[in-house]
User: Fold this.
Amino acid sequence: MDFEKELKDRTDRVDRLLEKHLPKEDGPQKTVLEAMRYSVMSGGKRLRPILMDETYTLFNGSTGSVEPFMAAIEMIHSYSLVHDDLPALDNDEYRRGRKSTHAAYGEAMGILAGDALLNYAFETAALAFDIDPGPCVAKAFSLFAKKTGIYGMIGGQVVDVETEGRQIGPDTLRFIHEKKTGALIEAAMMTGAILAGASDDQVDNVGSIALDVGLAFQIRDDILDVTSTTEVLGKPVGSDEKNNKNTYVKYFGLDKAESEVEHISERALTSLASLPYENPFLTELIKRLVHRKK
Amino acid sequence: MDFEKELKDRTDRVDRLLEKHLPKEDGPQKTVLEAMRYSVMSGGKRLRPILMDETYTLFNGSTGSVEPFMAAIEMIHSYSLVHDDLPALDNDEYRRGRKSTHAAYGEAMGILAGDALLNYAFETAALAFDIDPGPCVAKAFSLFAKKTGIYGMIGGQVVDVETEGRQIGPDTLRFIHEKKTGALIEAAMMTGAILAGASDDQVDNVGSIALDVGLAFQIRDDILDVTSTTEVLGKPVGSDEKNNKNTYVKYFGLDKAESEVEHISERALTSLASLPYENPFLTELIKRLVHRKK
Assistant:
């Protein structure tokens, strides 16, 4: 398998899907539509929609109901970054080498574009009802909304913001990692499984795998912020320490963090291998995500 | 009919419904859950959920699938006020006689509590799938998300923010009123009709009525800001002029605004009377909304 080529094909496909689903930029409310597009079409890795689609494929999903949800999860991810970057939160003027949304469009439009993307994600996901009128879409919808909200991503974000610069215990650190990063990976993979008609047990199983993948991914992020270089990473290293962020490396040191990544990702891959289906690309993608150098 | 008593019963019922659906305030993310409750349980009129429920009743809805949507629309209304009040938008420190959410919980938590309410509204509405597994809930979901988003409420808010203090034409003024206020009234009444199983024609009809009700309600709001007193209204009058807001009164004068309210509300009531069902409370509610003194 030419993994890089396969990955590029999938990333391009997600970009096309987003182009298709993003609103046309006309009408009196044009500015917010432009700001939405600016926020979403910014060269992200498209990891979450790809994980969703590959899990859908793993369980032999075929109706295409996954497509609106793939666009929706990337919109959710984008809005969370737009709001994270706001002056009252991380106050980041730049993201991925260009101005963050509020820096480009003003703070009021940053807030509104984030709201708009969050709402439009649900509007977009609802298109799946027209593709598959069966019960899977409703079930996916409920799970998706739960994982993006107060018991998922937003919950993690809240605790992260509240504890910044304060000493916290390992339980709280784990809560932040599991929710802020993990919940959206869970949303991606579990939604893919549900839409493909996987059984409840299989969906739970996929949820555990996703949580491990999210956790390993986040610890790897913490490690790279210490061990990589700004050139390789494409963003400033050492920012966690500078911003007094609570990270795995800060609490447990580099060696323990590295062994945790190994342990957690092995567990995820073993579970994945025990499922009655296989998707070699998904397995390889997970391996590379947790062992990435940037 | 003892209208005031009937209205109070309905308002109390919505409050109980919101209490039931708001998340329990425990867990590491407690602060955002408190801020959500603070924002929602603030003595609002509960107009939108009541309009939704009365329209549902009008079309003989009976499964109870309307209840999660009633809670959801009030959450959407609440989040829109929380974000409206933020320093980058209207910068209001007070709302309904007490601190606005960001003033009470800090700006970061104001942003996150708004996001949380928006997301939780969809999470809550999705509970309706368990009550009614038929196609009505999916249809209601799509309409609801459309009316709250960029082609509805958020669209109106964006144009309102962008045109503040600038001269605009009557078309833009109408766009703002129809979207910022009207779209959520449409969402309320159309969702009620859809969930009750009304036909497409009937739902469209209800949409036109709702748009008229929203427009008349908003023009009345503009009028009261000029003609009422702070004591009667319970909030400062003259704030539109002070904030250089584009209002119906500013563009057309008081007399024309008053005759528009009459004309539009008469049209709405005539359409309502032409439906094959009737709900005397709904008719009376609409009459009072457009002729209210506060």
Residues 186 and 210 of chain A are 5 Å apart (CA to CA).
